[in-house]
Amino acid sequence: MSAVSIYAEASPNPESMKFVLNQNLLVDGVSVDYPNLEAAANSPVAQELFGFDYVGRVFIAQNFVTVTKTQPELAWTQIIPELRQFLKSYVEAGGPLFTVDPAAEQKAAQAATAGDPTQQEGQIAQKVIDLLDNYVRPAVEQDGGNITFKSYHEGIVTVNLQGSCSGCPSATVTLKSGIENLLKRMVPEVQSVVAEGIMV
Known about the structure:
Pfam families: Nfu_N, NifU. It is built from 5 helices and 8 strands.
């Protein structure tokens, strides 16, 4: 295993910090969001992170981990070295990241929630998914989060905001002024975008 280097990068959410690694944790396009310890049953590394009493949420994507803290009074400068050292040691030691491959898990979940859209709705949904994947997700990942498509029905697109986006003060603005405007412009059938996962 080659040496792991990690640097911390601020996100628009003051309570979330993105830890970027020089190697991949997941395949591109797959991410996992754990809002609490119970949700992290599939990820031993996330469970260990929740062992730090100030960790309130863990998000893992292709080559980064976003940690959201629960104690606003605790400065990042105090805890970044500890978290960085933990992640570096854990990954270098080859510690298990997941018990079940999240890519397989995600496919099963999407199939379960897809329902039976009409052919037209299915085509519109596919256009929306392509736009989110190509234009929105890369920008959101830069900020330490992720956006996933949940459903399209009668003009309403439902998305999931994960990682740093879930508690970010500017998430609602980004959603309405950025994502909704883009989708309405590119897919005329879209009337509005609503999000799950925004904790205000």
